């Protein structure tokens, strides 16, 4: 299948503003006449809810098992016949996802060799690489502050020590894959509208170019 529409992945630490920017970009694309499908990982499939149960401490899971569940969740996210990403692209939607495989590279390589995580996700990368990965960069301290403001329960990865490692791993993965992947890093420590403008100017050309 030749891919006609853009596929954009948002990446960043918890609370970096991904959902906010996914929404802003979606609205802007819709206003410009595009059909947009906004989606996220972990998904709301049965595999995704198993992952969330582990994150919320309802059930236990070894880090290697969690990493493997994300591999399965992502493949299902791509390939589901009814509302998988490939199907949506085929139906003419621009697809924007809140997290994709760079989240796996960053979050799991704190515990497991990054090379393994990249290899385990190789099938997804072959099936569909994002036209653009957008990394919203905030410091781990800011991430913790935003998480603490929003709620009083903490998920598995939401400790300052872990988020410091995750940010390092994100930057390491971007360096490692600089020839394979298109990555745009934006400073998330500014008002949402400024970030949205910067993202829009980064993708505006791609959107126009892709239009028939
Ligand atoms: P994520 O999806 O990455 O977890 P959200 O978009 O849900 O992030 O934002 C997390 C919290 O931070 C929310 O309370 C949101 O209102 C706030 N927020 C989002 N973007 C910014 C920003 N640029 N500056 C300050 N706070 C922000
Ligand atoms: P998410 O619901 O996007 O949380 P937030 O809105 O706070 O960013 O993601 C939940 C958690 O899942 C988040 O801590 C990152 C983690 N995660 C992984 O560990 N591996 C993955 O492959 C993905 C997609 C997410």
Overview of the structural elements:
The chain is an alpha/beta fold and 212 residues long. It has one domain: P-loop containing nucleotide triphosphate hydrolases (Rossmann fold, 3-Layer(aba) Sandwich), CATH 3.40.50.300. Helices cover 54% and strands 13% of the residues. It has ten helices and five strands. Strands 2-3-1-4-5 form a five-stranded parallel beta sheet, with helices on both faces. Helix 2 (46-55) runs antiparallel to helix 3 (63-79) and helix 8 (140-150) crosses helix 9 (160-176). The mean pLDDT is 94. Bound molecules: adenosine-5'-diphosphate and thymidine-5'-diphosphate. Thymidine-5'-diphosphate binds at residues 14-15, 41-42, 70, 98-99, 103-104, 107, 155, 157. Thymidine-5'-diphosphate binds next to helix 5.
Give the SSE map.
Elements: E1 7-12, H1 18-31, E2 36-40, H2 46-55, H3 63-79, H4 85-90, E3 94-98, H5 101-108, H6 114-120, H7 122-127, E4 132-137, H8 140-150, H9 160-176, E5 183-187, H10 192-210
Parallel strand pairs: 1-3, 1-4, 2-3, 4-5
This protein binds adenosine-5'-diphosphate and thymidine-5'-diphosphate.
